[in-house]
Task: inverse folding
C-alpha cells in the first residue's frame, strides 16, 4: 500500500475544508471496506485519507413521524439491519443491509459508503430509492439535498463535485398502509454481489385498498440502479391482483438494460427481473395490507 497522510476532522466544516484543501489527492474513509481493499491493490492511491468517524452525530439513526428517518454517514449496515425503527418502518432497507457481505463486513461497511461507491449492484440503493430517499451533501459552496436516484452517474461514478461529500441519508416517513421489500439473486448464497436486485414499495388507499402508489427499483441490470416507471404505472390506481402484478413484472423486465457477464446472461437477468419484481411487489403489498 502506498503511504498517505491521515487526518481526522471533528466537524462537518473541518471535513469539507480538508477535502477542499487537498482536492483530488484526498478521499474519505468511514468503514473502509471497499477503499482499503482498493488501496492495497493500488487501484486507488489517495495521498490523504480524511477519516470522518470523529464527527459527532454521523453515527446516529434518528426517526420521527414528521421528518422520517435520518442516517448519518457513519451508520453501518449492521446498525441499520438491527435497528427496530428501520425494521418496523423501512423493511426493504433492513433486508438490503442484512445481506451485505458477512457480519464482520456489516459491522464496518456504511450505508452512505455503499451509495457513494455507486456500484450498479449496490444492495441498499434499490430499497432506499423505492422509499424516496434523499442525500444531504456538504461542500465548499454550502449544503444541498439531492434525490438519491440523481446521485448515480454510472458504474462506480457519482455526481459529487470536488470537495463535496454525503453527510446523511434522509427517508420520508412512510404513509399509512405502506409496505416495502428487497431481494437479490446471487450465484452464491452469501458473500457475493447481486446478479439482479429488486426493491419495491407499495402504498394502499386507506379505505378501498386500491394501490395509491408503487415504486419499483432495479439493481444490477443497468449502469445505475433504475426505476421501472412503466411497471409502476400498471399498478397505480388499481386493485392489485396476481395477474396485474405479473404484468408489472413483465414490464419491469422490458425496462431493464442488463449486460451479459460471468454472473449471467442479459436474457437470464431479464427473466430474473420479472420473477423478482413479482415477488417483491407481492411482498410489499402483503405488508401494506397489514399496515
Result:
Amino acid at each position: 500500500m502506498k503511504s498517505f497522510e491521515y487526518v481526522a476532522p471533528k466537524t462537518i466544516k473541518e471535513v469539507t475544508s480538508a477535502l477542499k484543501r487537498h482536492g483530488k489527492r484526498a478521499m474519505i474513509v468511514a468503514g473502509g471496506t471497499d477503499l482499503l481493499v482498493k488501496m492495497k491493490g493500488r487501484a486507488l492511491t489517495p495521498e490523504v485519507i480524511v477519516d470522518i468517524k470523529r464527527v459527532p452525530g454521523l453515527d446516529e439513526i434518528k426517526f420521527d413521524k414528521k421528518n422520517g428517518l435520518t442516517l448519518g454517514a457513519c451508520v453501518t449496515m449492521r446498525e441499520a439491519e438491527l435497528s427496530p425503527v428501520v425494521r418496523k418502518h423501512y423493511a426493504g432497507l433492513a433486508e438490503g443491509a442484512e445481506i451485505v457481505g458477512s457480519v464482520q463486513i456489516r459491522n464496518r461497511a456504511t450505508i452512505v459508503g455503499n451509495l457513494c461507491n455507486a456500484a450498479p449492484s449496490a444492495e441498499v440503493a434499490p430499497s432506499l430509492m423505492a422509499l424516496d430517499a434523499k442525500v444531504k451533501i456538504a461542500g465548499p459552496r454550502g449544503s444541498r439535498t439531492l434525490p438519491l436516484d440523481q446521485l448515480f452517474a454510472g458504474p462506480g461514478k457519482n455526481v459529487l463535485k470536488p470537495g463535496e461529500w454525503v453527510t446523511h441519508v434522509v427517508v420520508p416517513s412512510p404513509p399509512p398502509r405502506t409496505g416495502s421489500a428487497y431481494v437479490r439473486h446471487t450465484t452464491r448464497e452469501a458473500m457475493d454481489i447481486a446478479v439482479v436486485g429488486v426493491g419495491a414499495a407499495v402504498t394502499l388507499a386507506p379505505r378501498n385498498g386500491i394501490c395509491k402508489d408503487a415504486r419499483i427499483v432495479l439493481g444490477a441490470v443497468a449502469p445505475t440502479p433504475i426505476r421501472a416507471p412503466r411497471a409502476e404505472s400498471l399498478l397505480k390506481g388499481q386493485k392489485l391482483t396476481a395477474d396485474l402484478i405479473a404484468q408489472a413484472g413483465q414490464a419491469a423486465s422490458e425496462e431493464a438494460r442488463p449486460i451479459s457477464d460471468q454472473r449471467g446472461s442479459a436474457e437470464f437477468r431479464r427473466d430474473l427481473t420479472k420473477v423478482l419484481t413479482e415477488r417483491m411487489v407481492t411482498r410489499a403489498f402483503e405488508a401494506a395490507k397489514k399496515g
User: Anything to note?
Assistant: The longest strand covers residues 196-204. The chain is about 35% helix and 25% strand. The CA atoms of residues 245 and 278 lie 6 Å apart. The radius of gyration is 19 Å.
